[in-house]
């Protein structure tokens, strides 16, 4: 019997491990992984590099004119076993994880035209099924009919420490306090924005990984998916 193709939506707070979980699900169940946050980061990077964002101010007119020039794609790097993000044909996977992008991405994510462009793109990908996607509004807006939905969260101080540990090697000027402040702001922006705010879908399964190891978390998530099938 042919395996039933399903879509899995993963939402949650910043730096709670959504992408890591989604990648593991992708590998375990042979699904296509889409990092929706990377799309917003790619547009933010474009805005920074083209001075659409300048000294924390956004040139909305220029941004709207530029949206049609922005092409985002993904390519699986076999050697590194990761999916990399491409902006107008250029590999920007490393650049979009930089703190200067993290500081601005919430502001870009609030803009309706940006969200409309990316949600349309994301829904076209999901229509083919067998997709696991993570973000802020996947289960509520992008894939409201997803077969399995998870909402991932953790204490913000724990998330900040994890993020700081991940980034400090390549950013000597970074401090835990700065990371914590950034996450608090992003949480506030995500929950408070008028357009598609971060919400837990009514049928989403909540996973609080504050005290869960990554291995135990994956075991829990994998079993929930298998039980669904």
Walkthrough of the structure:
It is a single chain. The protein has 229 residues and is of the alpha/beta class. Helix content is 46%, strand content 18%. It is built from 10 helices and 10 strands. The chain has helices at 18-29, 36-49, 60-66, 99-102, 105-109, 112-126, 138-142, 156-167, 176-192, 214-228; strands at 8-12, 32-35, 53-54, 57-58, 72-77, 82-87, 90-91, 131-135, 148-153, 205-208. The strands form 3 sheets. Strands 2-8-1-9-10 form a 5-stranded parallel sheet, sandwiched between helices. A hairpin with a 2-residue loop joins strand 3 (53-54) and strand 4 (57-58). Helix 8 packs across helix 9 (176-192). The longest helix is centred in the last third of the chain and has 17 residues, at 176-192.
Name the features.
229 residues; 5-stranded parallel β-sheet; 10 helices
Low-confidence stretches: none
Instruction: Give the tally of β-strands.
Output: 10
> DSSP strand (E) fraction?
15-25%
Number of H- or I-type helical stretches: 10
Distance between the termini: 13 Å
Quick overview:
This protein is of the alpha/beta class. It has 10 helices and 10 strands.
């Amino acid at each position: 019997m042919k395996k039933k193709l399903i879509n899995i939506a993963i939402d949650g707070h910043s730096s709670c491990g959504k992408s890591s979980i989604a990648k593991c699900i992708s590998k375990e169940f042979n699904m296509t992984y889409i990092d929706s946050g990377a799309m917003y980061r790619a547009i933010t990077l474009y805005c920074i590099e083209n001075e659409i964002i300048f000294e924390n101010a956004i040139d909305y007119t220029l941004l709207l004119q530029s949206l049609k020039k922005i092409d985002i794609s993904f390519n699986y790097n076999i050697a590194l076993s990761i999916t990399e993000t491409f902006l107008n044909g250029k590999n920007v996977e490393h650049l979009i994880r930089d703190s200067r992008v993290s500081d601005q991405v919430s502001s870009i994510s609030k803009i309706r035209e940006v969200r409309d462009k990316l949600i349309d793109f994301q829904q076209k990908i999901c229509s083919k099924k067998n997709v696991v996607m993570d973000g802020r509004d996947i289960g509520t807006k992008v894939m409201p009919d997803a077969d399995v939905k998870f909402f991932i969260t953790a204490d913000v101080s724990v998330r900040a420490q994890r993020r700081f540990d991940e980034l400090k090697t390549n950013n000597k000027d970074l401090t835990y306090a700065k990371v914590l402040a950034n996450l608090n702001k992003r949480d506030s922006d995500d929950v408070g924005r008028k357009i598609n705010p971060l919400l837990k879908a009514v049928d989403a399964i909540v996973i609080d990984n504050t005290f869960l190891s990554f291995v135990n978390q994956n075991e829990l998530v994998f079993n929930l998916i298998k039980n669904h099938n």
